[in-house]
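Re: folding output
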Amino acid sequence: MKRSAKWYNNQLFPWLLPIVFIVLWQLLGQYKILTSTLLPTPVEIAQAGIRLFKTGDLQEHVLISTQRALIGFFIGGAVGFALGLFNGTILFFERLTDTTIQMVRTIPHLALIPLVILWFGIDESAKIFLVAVGVMFPIYINTFNGIKNVDRKLIEMGTVYGLSKWKLFTNIILPGSLPSILVGIRYALGVMWMSLIVAETIGADSGIGFMATNAREFMQMDIVVLTIVLYAILGKLSDVIAKLFEKRLLKWNAAFNK
């Protein structure tokens, strides 16, 4: 049993399916089963990336998109965490605001685009606002549920031992809710990039979404697919960083220390 467990624990194993997919994709394009006008090959996409890298356009647009995503993530994440914290620990706030937040949460945040354009126009604040709204709710709901699901017996034990409210929070409530909060962050990172993709295709003059829109108008399919690949890479990189934080912060939890 131990011997069979070793081969799939290899660091390269998770990349097996993507590599097979890329090789198959290249072969289909190489033998003209898929035409370049329909779907360019990975080699053609890589060549487009190198071309844009040499001109400096690739780095510029990726940096701008990353800045928008991170600013929106930190604003929405901070608001979502604060609301989840207050509603999870103070019954008054939960009764006052949770029902309203849950109602607003059911509205697709991308449906707000017409209103956002009227409120903010099509400048940076509109894109950041859409990302922030998308990120806020996953972090809120996971923070709120994480705090609510902390073992009440542990809280009672801490109270019996005379822990102050601050120590009760930092030593019992926060560590107990952290797995749920980190799941919310990982989910929110995916929503962050999805929101940005839509936001950047609306009146943008820079960013990865602008590259995609501009390339579509000139039928540059290699650049259009390249932008999709860039979003996928950035999304994967975000998830990898989140998992590293997860491992570091949850070393005490056996389920996350494998």
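--- second protein (sequence, then structure) ---
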Amino acid sequence: MTRQKSSTKGDLTWWQLSLTGIGCTIGTGYFLGSSIGISLTGPSIVFSFILAALGTYIVFHFLAKMSADDPQEGSFCYYANKAFGKWAGFSCGWNYWSSSILIMGSQLIALSILTQLWFPNIPLWVFAAIYSILAILVVLLGTKGFDKVEDILAVIKTAAIIIFIIMAFGALFGWFTGTNVKQPGIPNSLKQLFTGGWQGFWSSLIYAFYAFGGIEVIGLMTIRLKKKEDAPKSGKLMLLLLALIYIVSIGLSVTLVSVEAFDPNESPFITALADYHLSYFKHGFNAAIIIAGFSAMTATLFGVMTLLVTLAKDGDAPQLFAKKINKFKNLPLPSLALATVGLLASIIIALLLPEKIYEYITTAAGILLLYNWACIIASSLKLQKQRNRLHSFVGLFGVLLLGITVIGTLAEKSIRPGFYISILLLIIIGIVTIYRNKKS
């Protein structure tokens, strides 16, 4: 694949890209999925997030370097193609598309679970259908309308986390009264720290990494920067803010209540303050979480639609999906229609398998995401002509950490089906890739 370095004039400043990245990243994977991680490993979930932040930074470092040197619309798909050939770009693109569809499904189910706090008798699939329609309407606003909505929602959800942190400190210092409040405090033994043992800690890593899912948006949206060389600066700010608020808020949560209190179907932040006389907080924060999840889901839908257009332009998808309709703000409606099919599948799954489906889909989505992150590192190592031993070591360490995280999902029976789902999708993509190569 040969393509000229992009000269497209962008419309985003570096801090706007950081804000958009935060908006695309903070979602139900953090607000709800982290409860699963806490139930698996206990207070040591803080270390899971530290490791995930380190691994995410390594991926970002390699992606940002490629994006700054050679900004391209296809981002990591283009780099995989350039490094390893057409098959790599094709499989990388469709793997990311598949992971994004699963992420949308995960977010959709999570939003429905959270909304049942107010309407417990209404089935999950009804809420899933409502949120799907709303997300499609936001995307139909076009790029500028989407950016404005996402910026507003990003501010709301970041503010919600900051409010929780302030209130959690207030609870620790006795500013609020509560009923039967028993703060476990900071663990003073390995058993208290790793309540699920090393196996539980290993399995929890996938949920910490999943909370950082969205960093790849820096690569996909670099093309829209006014100054393409600002991509590394945007990503560093984004990651620093995310890591700080994630680690502090999660640490406060496991300090305020015991591990047994956390429920995978309830946000750990609501659980952490449940015993205090803050009735308004539970409902207000639940609303903020729903806004956050909806924001992330809509951003994923927009990203899936955009990615499919790029795949079609590169010949990795039917040309139909590159077609844009002028009457609808020049949006690629065929690509949006295929993404909508993914949303419909999530609604049907919510109807048929409402019990454990959130854990399964979230696990599978996280694993597929890490496959793509490993591909990003491998592409960079192959393309970078001048690299020292430290550069190579950091890259190999990043791939090893991602691999350990993926294998960790096999250690816990309750989330193991998610691993099998990811393998099934990889096999399907692999078969299609082999067939396509033979045909061409």
